[in-house]
Design brief:
Number of strands: 28
Transmembrane segments: 535-553, 611-632, 830-855
Largest sheet: 8 strands, mixed
Helix content: 40-55%
Strand content: 15-25%
Family: Belongs to the glutamate-gated ion channel (TC 1.A.10.1) family.
Disulfide bonds: 64-316, 757-815
Protein name: Ionotropic receptor 25a isoform X1
Domain Ionotropic glutamate receptor L-glutamate and glycine-binding: 418-479
CATH class of the largest domain: Alpha Beta
CATH architecture of the largest domain: 3-Layer(aba) Sandwich
Strand order of the largest sheet: 7-6-8-9-10-13-14-15
Number of helices: 32
CATH topology of the largest domain: Rossmann fold
Number of domains: 5
CATH superfamily of the largest domain: Response regulator
Structural class: alpha/beta
Length: 927
């Protein structure tokens, strides 16, 4: 390949004591050069510096000693091979080569910003100070590709000493919204405990980088902890060859291992057999071999082309920091790219900037299934090429995605209707439904995850006690047992100190009052209770007395109708005011129909006018009092606000123990007490002047004691232990003016009033706070949920959820409306009027029956033998007389009488009309 032979004077090789692979690969490269004449390379000498200390001064002295000796022997180095890995050793070597402007090819770990001594190189310096990242530095980048490809939200990254991850802590998942932890694998005895700690931090995606033996130890520990299954994902990454083995009972693992480029396998095999390139890991040995050989060949190529200029050197003692050395036009980087030597493993990618050059090897992605400690299958699912932003190449993305850990979040909640309610399906399994569950399902459409939900052990939202200890949902989040707190959890300042809240998903909600709905007393004859019984009796007595007077006046007045029939015989209305007519007249005078014709005599008319005036006053008074009476009974609401509740003593009131409402009143009372003490200390301060003290002298306390008194009243009332107990006490109240009132969240009270017809919400809300979803402090879920909730707000999804659970909820009952002024008088209070009608109609029916019976059976016409009574023998038809009222009106009976009978009847009538007596019939006629 190379025809000329060039003497390369010296090389300086610097490496870590912890990197024997690089040293052995360099020996193979030197052996390859010596045994392969076609390279055309001969070495004058080769100096090695193996760093076995982290002391920069000691290492620098060793380097300067080697370097200065080479200058004294007039054999300065042409090239420095820097195979140090990272840390102090690497930075010392780079500082040395940078200061003395020595052409260097480095295989250190890290990207451009990680090489602190080479971070700000000039363009000319960049040409001869070259860094190429080793495979162990690029392989961890596959984690970033996996996380981005499958949107993994958490990651636990474990590694052994075959990988150097010092610089990866900040850069591996930089700008990726993934909560992660990077740690070295502990010894075999502590691996289980290490995995447990990661799991307690809610890590379910595990990446293990290391040798095959390390992978086996970690996977065995995971099997012992039962960390395999749908909730977990395992990624095993190695530089080694061979198959993945572990003792897992049932596990599926994504296994990534390197494989040589197909075009390089023959050459790799020859190097392995002919030159003993057998150090493991194979990919690292091949990389260091190729980099060393390419470095040698690049110098040889530059010398052949006359591009290698004679270098000027400065010893360590002569070096002046204010006069740095810079070599011009030394194109070592370009020469490295132009070398045509075939790669032994994979091609080298040499870029213009350090930190971006590497060997572009491939990693094979296998899905390894382990059953009962045996690998039953290892299916190739794809590949990945080493690189900083290299994407995964998979055969079936869906099948691989199913092997990743499902994002299963543990959700703690509190049962509260209608936000979270517990139900059971047909199989008896516990299910949850409600406003918050629907909200969670809507968020899942935006953020893909699964969840496990459980109720807080004490079914409380969370409050802090005097010792600063939390309970309820807040405690579960603080102690990492839950990822999300879901429910009608109010945003409070003290809670935000220990957990994080998302943006509010529900409007401001305050505290309100729950009371028993007043039961307005009803009576069918309530219209009769408008006037007292004594008044009704007096009205009845006045009625009979006035009717009697009218009858007396009409009978004795000489100007009445019955005493002046001839005078009023031509009047159309002729009314004789007997006792019956007087009763009827007085009764009908009280109605809109009126009493009819008034008496003819003046005295009777005065009595009637007096009765009319009396009736008008009584009817007007009754009507006004009836309306007022029915209205006042409906407007009787003794408590309409918190102030009303605090000013009375008959109704007990309290929130339930441990609730947010209890905390509110307790703190308000405490604040009032503290303010009072502050004012009292000010007013009693002896150091004040007379003027200053006078300014504090007031007749009323400047600090109220409203909440102090209310808190004491709540303690006296003995707070219920839960909402159910509070509602039961409210229901036991005898009325709105005595009993028990519950103070709590307005959402609770509103829902109770909608689903119970005997409860009502009283007063306006106070101490209003929004509801939000809680997450662990610092959790990335906060930002994800914020975005989802804002999207739901923009789409008006939250309004639809409110409508479903508050307006169209099937649990809401349709209660009878409470009487008010707009609704009018209810049938329960005026229904007796209809009973009066029915009773009157019933009496009329009975009277009709009596009249019919009396007419038909008791008052039938009777025929009398007038002749027989007088002893005469006149013909029968001439002495018949029809006796009985109404007989003359019966045409059918009259038609049967003969002419003689009619004549007799007419004769009898004429006699009676003339005032004469018809013998024998006078008595009958009179009747």
């Amino acid at each position: 390949m190379y025809s000329s032979v060039q003497l390369i004077r010296r090389r300086v090789f610097v490496s870590d004591e912890s990197n024997p692979v690089a040293e052995k690969a360099l020996d193979v490269a030197l052996n390859y050069v010596r045994r392969t004449a076609s390279t055309g390379i001969q070495f004058d000498s080769f100096q090695r510096v193996i760093a076995n200390t982290s002391d920069a001064r000691t290492l620098l002295e060793a380097l300067c000693e080697k370097y200065d000796n080479s200058l004294k022997t007039e054999k300065p180095p042409d090239l420095v091979l820097d195979f140090t890995q990272t840390g102090v050793t690497s930075e010392t070597v780079k500082s040395f080569t940078h200061a003395l402007a020595l052409p260097t090819v480095s295989a250190s770990y890290g990207q451009e910003d990680d090489l602190r001594q080479w971070r700000f190189l000039a363009d000319d310096q960049m040409k001869y100070l070259v860094q190429v990242s080793p495979p162990a530095d690029m392989i961890p980048e596959v984690i970033r590709s996996i996380v981005l490809a499958w949107n993994i939200s958490n990651a636990g990254i474990l590694f052994d000493d075959s990988f150097v991850m010092d610089h990866k802590y900040k850069s591996l998942l930089q700008n990726v919204p993934t909560r992660h932890l990077i740690a070295a694998v502990e010894d075999v005895r502590n691996v289980k405990r290490q995995l447990t700690r990661l799991r307690e931090l809610d890590i379910v995606n595990f990446f293990v980088l290391g040798r095959l033996a390390t992978l086996k130890n970690v996977l065995d520990a995971a099997n012992a902890n039962k960390y395999f299954g749908r909730k977990f994902a395992w990624f095993a990454i190695t530089q080694d060859k061979g198959q993945l083995k572990c003792s897992a009972s049932n596990a599926t693992i994504l296994f990534l291992k390197p494989e040589p480029d197909p075009t390089s396998r023959e050459r790799l095999e020859k190097l392995r057999t002919d030159f003993s390139l057998t150090t493991e890991p194979e990919i690292a040995s091949a990389f260091y071999f190729d980099l060393a050989l390419r470095s040698f060949l690049s110098i040889k190529q530059m010398m052949d082309k006359g591009q290698w200029k004679k270098l000027n050197y400065v010893s360590c003692e002569e070096y002046q920091e204010d006069k740095p050395m810079v070599r011009r036009d030394l194109e070592l980087r370009r020469a490295l790219r132009e070398v045509q030597e075939p790669p032994s493993y994979a091609p080298m990618m040499l870029e213009e900037h350090n930190g971006h050059s590497y060997m572009e090897a491939s990693m094979r992605l296998e899905k390894v299934t382990v059953v009962n400690g045996q690998s039953v299958s290892a299916e190739v699912e794809g590949s990945w090429k080493l690189g900083l932003d290299s994407p995964l190449s998979v055969k079936d993305a869906s099948s691989i995605a199913n092997l990743t850990a499902a994002s299963v979040y543990r959700i703690v909640t509190v049962l509260q209707k209608p936000f979270v309610m517990e139900t059971r399906d047909k199989s008896g399994a516990v299910k949850y439904e409600g406003y918050c569950i629907d909200l969670l399902d809507e968020i899942r459409k935006i953020i893909v995850f699964e969840y496990e939900i459980y109720v807080a052990p004490d079914n409380k939202f969370g409050n802090m006690d005097e010792k600063g200890q939390w309970d309820g949902m807040i405690k579960e989040l603080m102690e990492k047992r839950a990822d999300i707190g879901l429910g009608s959890l109010a945003v409070m300042a003290e809670r935000e100190n220990v957990i994080d809240f998302t943006v509010p998903y529900y409007d401001l909600v305050g505290i309100s009052i729950l009371m028993k709905k007043p039961e307005t007393p009803t009576s069918l004859f309530k219209f009769l209770t408008v006037l007292e019984r004594e008044v009704w009796l007096c009205i009845l007595a006045a009625y009979f007395f006035t009717s009697f007077l009218m009858w007396v006046f009409d009978r004795w007045s000489p100007y009445s109708y019955q005493n002046n029939r001839e005078k009023y015989k031509d009047d159309e209305e002729k009314r004789e005011f007997n006792l019956k007519e007087c009763l009827w007249f007085c009764m009908t005078s009280l109605t809109p129909q009126g009493g009819g014709e008034a008496p003819k005599n003046l005295s009777g008319r005065l009595v009637a006018a007096t009765w009319w005036l009396f009736g008008f006053i009584i009817i007007a008074s009754y009507t006004a009092n009836l309306a007022a009476f029915l209205t006042v009974s409906r407007l009787d609401t003794p408590v309409e606000s918190l102030d009303d509740l605090s000013k009375q003593y008959k109704i007990q009131y309290a929130p339930y123990n441990g609730s947010a409402a209890m905390t509110y009143f307790q703190r308000m009372a405490d604040i009032e007490t503290r303010f009072y003490e502050i004012w009292k200390d000010m007013s009693l301060n002896d150091s004040l002047s007379e003027v200053e003290r006078a300014k504090l002298a007031v007749w009323d306390y400047p600090v109220g004691d409203k909440y102090t008194k209310m808190w004491q009243a709540m303690l006296d009332a003995k707070m219920p232990n839960n909402l159910e107990e509070a509602v039961a006490r409210v229901r036991l109240s005898e009325g709105t003016s005595e009993g028990f009132a519950y103070l709590g969240d307005a959402t609770d009270i509103r829902y109770l009033s909608l689903t119970n017809c005997d409860l009502q919400m009283v007063g306006e809300e106070f101490s209003r706070k929004p509801y939000a979803i809680a997450v662990q402090q610092g959790s990335p879920l906060k930002d994800q949920f914020n975005n989802a909730i804002l999207q739901l707000l923009n789409k008006r999804k939250l309004e639809k959820l409110k409508e479903r659970w508050w307006s169209t909820n099937p649990e809401i009952k349709k209660c009878d409306k409470q009487d008010d002024q707009q609704d009018g008088i209810s049938i329960q209070n005026i229904g007796g009027v209809f009973i009066v009608i029915f009773v009157g109609i019933g009496l009329a029916c009975v009277t009709l029956a009596f009249e019919y019976y009396w007419y038909k059976y008791k008052r039938n016409p009777r025929v009398t033998d007038l002749a027989g009574q007088r002893g005469g023998k006149a013909p029968r038809q001439q002495h018949l007389a029809v006796i009985g009222r109404g007989a003359s009106d019966d045409l059918s009976a009259t038609a049967k009488l003969d002419a003689a009978a009619l004549g007799a009847l007419g004769q009898a009538y004429n006699y009676r009309r003339n005032g004469n007596q018809l013998p024998g019939v006078n008595q009958a006629w009179q009747h």
